Amino acid sequence: MSLSRLIINNFRNLTAVDLELSHGFNFLIGENGSGKTSLLEAIFYLGHGRSFKSHISNRVINYERDHFVLFGRVEEAKHEWSVGLQKTRQGDTTLKINGEDGKKISDLAHLLPMQVITPEGLTLLNGGPTYRRAFLDWGLFHQHNEFYNHWANLKRLLKQRNAALAQVRNYAELRPWDIELAKLAHLVSDMRAVYAEALRPEIEKTCQFFLPELEITVSFHQGWEKESEYSEILMQGFERDRTVGYTMVGPQKADFRFRANGLPVEDVLSRGQLKLLMCALRLAQGEYLITQKSRQCLFLIDDFASELDPTKRALLAERLRQSGSQVFVTAITQDQLNQMHWQGQQSDKRFSVTQGKIVLL
Ligand SMILES: Nc1ncnc2c1ncn2[C@@H]1O[C@H](COP(=O)(O)OP(=O)(O)OP(=O)(O)O)[C@@H](O)[C@H]1O
After folding, report:
1. Is 153 annotated in some ligand binding site?
2. Residues 238 and 334 in one domain
3. What pTM value is reported for the model?
């Protein structure tokens, strides 16, 4: 799967962009503020229905326009899809796949799996568990069709339980919710645990490649005491949950932790090592999808490799090449790309980005 054509209208400073893309590496070269990140953001938006930079979707609409339009042609083996997304300042979204209305954002996400590697992405390691749950759930979403529904139902039930906490007179009134919630919680957690265990060796192998000086280990925490029945935990925590007004333990608190030589990575690794670890995690997960599902995965790499030392940059480029993935890499100058040892291949494309205009070099 790769994006062979991309049309962008009025997305940030990209007012009119129409690109035929390489199935391999696409380099975006331009000065600060020229629109490189915006292009990656537009691709991400097309695959997720949201930005990786701003939660306020109006921010991405060009200042002088009232809507943006994104269009992509997605190719995989002998199949081809056209995907279109339009969003207005009033908040109306139109989403089409092969010209058909009524599609969901999750349909888009299934079509376009992608991994983003940006400096902000370090939150995967030094941010809260939310980021690591999102990392795990990305894999599950692409691995198991039913995961998304289970997780969405679980979130809905949790919301209802939290609202009910303030209304019920005693625990017996809440019990029916908890029985349903517990079933889903075990289902989701078991899926996460199995996936985390399958991904673990891939992560450890990839970390060996990038950070051979460290022993990186990973562990999954389901969000409540291991081996305990979740419905019992909910019952025991009822008074506490009622006091605070929400459900304090459960799959909504799950985590996937990383340690280096037995210590939390965020405490002991240098910034460069953390960046390498983040690359390793995203690569391992993308590659796992490629091998397990025979699906391709896009890699969006922003302003990142420039901060790694030359050997590590070369390793990153080599691994991405080996994966056969479609890759988008931003750089300020061609020189910077040369220094990065991103070995050029005939199928690669280089684009120059200047004040929102993008041309093939
Ligand atoms: N809604 C918007 N409408 C128009 N322009 C915008 C909007 N939001 C941001 N911009 C501008 O778009 C430009 C593109 O920024 P972008 O982050 O894509 O640059 P970049 O090439 O990645 O730069 P850098 O190398 O500094 O990371 C910036 O000049 C920014 O001020």
Report:
1. no
2. no
3. 0.93
